[in-house]
Write a structure and sequence with these properties.
Length: about 220
């Protein structure tokens, strides 16, 4: 499916999905060491996951769900039909309980993050009126995250906001396709999720152990 074609209503993990298209773009974006795309083509954005400050222990021991994270490739989800500069939209991804936020920055870039503060899990809000690019703000204890990177810029949050990879179709619709853990490099996150279920995509992304030419994983 070309990048100009609209995605199916509920894309699955098979060939020709939004995730598949996104992977091709991600390969290029990773090569450029950048995941911030421009409005004139498919956008891949980083986002969300998060977690309680106290949740790390629970997650490590398998007790608590890691907010916004997905070990395997999540099912692509339509976030919104359109998103104008300065606007944000709340959604749930990858699970129904995982609060997330997609933001269109003033220069047209799309970013996506977990809306779960990494301090004590309060809801993170988009504040367009703050900072150069706007800010992601947690009102509970004045936590502030950089809108472009998710990094902590003020307050007590101990970790960056986990990112969500977004794509934008030519019709302007925005889709969530994958996630990264807090501070996790984009390629590592994508290979972790695409590697097992989509070796062809893993190959396109140049994931370790995957064959670039055939997209099959070496054994
Ligand atoms: Fe967000 Fe404390 S819960 S700063």
């Amino acid at each position: 499916m070309s990048l100009t074609e609209p995605p199916p209503p509920v894309p699955g993990p098979g060939p020709g999905t939004v995730a598949d298209e996104a992977a091709g773009q991600l390969r290029d974006r990773i090569s450029a060491d950048s995941l911030t795309t421009r409005r004139d083509y498919l956008r891949i954005v980083a986002t969300v996951s998060g977690g309680l400050a106290i949740g790390g222990v629970g997650v490590a021991s398998g007790i608590l769900h890691r907010h916004g994270d997905s070990e395997t490739l999540p099912r692509a989800k339509k976030v919104t039909d359109q998103l104008a500069p300065g606007e944000s939209v709340a959604f749930r991804f990858p699970g129904d309980e995982d609060r997330a936020l997609a933001v269109r920055l003033s220069d047209g870039s799309l970013v996506g993050y977990s809306a779960v503060c990494t301090h004590l899990a309060c809801a993170v809000l988009w504040r367009e009126d703050r900072g150069t690019d706007g800010e992601l703000y947690c009102p509970c204890h004045e936590g502030v995250f950089d809108a472009r990177t998710g990094e902590v810029t003020a307050g007590p949050p101990p970790r960056p906001l986990p990112r969500i990879f977004l794509t934008e179709e030519n019709d302007g619709s925005v889709w969530a396709v994958a996630t990264a853990r807090s501070g996790e490099p984009a390629k590592e996150a994508l290979c972790r999720q695409f590697g097992a279920s989509r070796p062809d995509v893993a190959g396109m992304l140049g994931c370790p152990g995957a064959d670039r030419a055939t997209g099959s994983r070496r054994t």
